[in-house]
Amino acid sequence: MANNNNNNNGKMSREERGRKGGEATSNNHDKEFYQEIGRKGGEATSNNHDKDFYQEIGRKGGEATSENHDKEFYQEIGSKGGEATSENHDKEFYQEIGRKGGEATSENHDKDFYREIGRKGGNSND
Fold first, then answer.
1. pLDDT of residue 5
2. Would you give the distance in Å from CA 120 to the centre of its chain?
3. Bias regions of kind Basic and acidic residues — which residues (predicted)?
4. CA angle 126, 108, 89 (to 5 degrees)
């Protein structure tokens, strides 16, 4: 990339100084350095924002992702996530989350709900 010195009387532009500074920083620091400053930045952000902030940025990120990816993308990341989870957890983990899910569902639904899903399940093989 050519220096952008022509219009600044031999001085570097702000863009050029920033680029050179970034290159020097990346040459002088390793992965752990960047992980540490990322961790500190995340802590500072969490101290300055509430649950609503994170819900909003999550919603915006989800919308942007859905606009840029198709069904196959979601199938692929779902598959990868399921594989990673299954490699990191045992049978007891799945029994526990199944139990918790069943309890939460039973607290939120009545007998009619279970009759309806049972009827739909019984008809799914027709």
1. 47
2. 34
3. 12-74, 86-119
4. 75
